[in-house]
Amino acid sequence: MTDRPEPIHAHAMENLQFIRDAMSRATEFTAVPGWGGVMMGATAMVAAVLSGPPDGSRRWVMIWLTDAAVAAAIALATMAIKARRQGTPLSSAAPAHRFALAYVPPLVAGMVLTPVFATMGLTARLPGCWLLLYGTAVATGGAFSVRVVPLMGLSFMTLGAVAFAAPAAWGHWLMAAGFGGLHIGFGYLIARRYGG
Prior knowledge:
- The longest helix is centred in the middle third of the chain and has 29 residues, at 58-86.
- The chain has 196 residues and is an all-alpha fold.
- The model has no long low-confidence stretch (mean pLDDT 85).
- The protein has one domain.
- The protein has seven helices and no strands.
- The protein is 77% helix and 0% strand.
């Protein structure tokens, strides 16, 4: 009895799955910086200690805005380093553009709402606003990234909702838990699973 040749469609499904997987990897933004997230978390812990509970003062807001600027610098620098190491420059990568287009609008909303909250005497509620909108930015941008990033965004959003419901005096601890703890935890996970 002779062996019959294997039909061509037998390998078609395997080939299609390989192509789908390759296309999925090509559309993911993988330069989310894990170790950068850990560093950002560490600076937030320091900011929480320096700021203390929200007290309606300009000093409190400025400590957190300064930390946000430092965190943004860390994120951009470590993202560029990771992208260069992966051989996918940020300036020409379509996944990076999609990530940015989804990530930036909620941050702009936070920049608009911050002075609104401050001038209306709602400074003590800024932790909820910041955590919720940052979480929205991470969740929407994360839709174009590795699976753990949207989960991180949802965790920030949940903490933001808790911050609105919790006593205002807990604001700095909730900021430490989110911008500190979540960044450190998810940053470590991203660094270990997704290469830095």
